[in-house]
Design goal:
- The chain is α+β, with helices and mostly antiparallel strands and about 450 residues long.
- Helix content is about 35%, strand content about 20%.
- The chain is built from 13 helices and 15 strands.
- It has a 7-stranded antiparallel sheet, sandwiched between helices. A 6-stranded antiparallel sheet has the order 12-11-10-13-15-14, sandwiched between helices. It has a two-stranded antiparallel sheet with strand order 2-3.
- Strand 2 and strand 3 form a beta hairpin.
- The longest helix has 24 residues.
Length: about 450
Amino acid sequence: AVNVHSAEQLPKRFYGAEHLGLPTLNKLNVPPAWKNEPPKTIGLDIESLASALRVAAGYQVGAEGTRRIAPNGGGLGIASLYVIARQVRGLEPGIYHYFGYEHKLERIGEVADELLLGALGDTSSSMPPAVVIGTAQMTKLRNKYDNFAFRLSILDAGVTKGCLYEALNALGIPHFDYVGARDKVLAQILRLPVAGHRNTITFAIALGEDKISGLKTHANVNHNLYPDSLIEWSSQLGPTTLPAANSTRVQSLFSVTTDRNLWDVMISRRSTRTFDDRPLDAKTLNLILSLSGSIDESCVNVGGLSLQMTLWVVVAVDGSSLKRGVYRWNHGANQLELRRENFSTELLESTMSQKGFAQAPVTLFIGGNFEQAVTNYGARGYREMLNRAGTMMLRAQLVAEALGLSGCMWGGITEEACGELLNIDRYRDCPLFGGSLGYPENV
């Protein structure tokens, strides 16, 4: 009952803030970037910004009521967005909180460029037109998920970032990920209450201009640590600086058989838990995995950390082109590799906290090399690895929706059982996120 009550609580306004209604003009009636190459946009306007914010943290009114457009863990809507606007056409410079429930900006102050540059960890470059900062409201999440709260908050952030990337890519707006942002300074700039880690910074993205960023490390990390330790360590910076990332925006173009625009795909997506028993063919599944893997590459090319992510697929229903089994996605060869033929339904069920997900024709697991992430980047590496998993899973779900499938993503995975099913060590291939895919019932 407490969990249901938490999910039903309406978002709260920023006390004392000046409210600014955003344009309702939707600029996302365009093909996804993974279908067609969009024209590169010069500058940034309030309509484009509003469209991107809406799909990432906004709401949609429908027959079933008002719902958050982007998937979010437990339906709690803990991911929140702030905008620092500098040169956005139609918007006065300042710091804003996006109140997605009413599709408004709440103006909460201003910040000097010098302070912002220092907070973003980049004191040598010019400023972009705008910066979008992601945060997590940890109090609600702790009440429901306790020690799992850190992991789920960052997976949620990855999904939110993925929605932003999909919108920005479709609109042709350059962007860059400030992986070296200084969390505590950003929190002060945003006037965020952080005592007891009630709010945490999850990402910072430049809009409208490519940037160069640096990151420093912290060594002693274990992904099972209490959330407070992970939050604290992932906010700290140490002595090692990353090389500059290749800031050229890379689009992964595939022939996707769909005429649906990005907005339609975004708002049509639902978290589906029951599926038809029809199998997925290899071509369809390969396309979903190709595009999920390509967003990993794109994240690196806009300033993200170079991480070693893995995609695993468990096919539960025999088909003509894809037999029941456990497969690993080889992104370099662009193909599935069969790793195991025989497994029990009970073993698959044991990998997830809700056994009903095992009824899906296809189960997708996203993992990452925990050793490589924390050795090279410390706790920040673990945070970014979770973030990336959320972005990749969001892409997989959107492509599936565009192709007429449905799905659900879930963070409640059992690592020990995943290790047994996938035959992985859970360290160099650490399971992070799960998802279900299939055709919807009665379609």
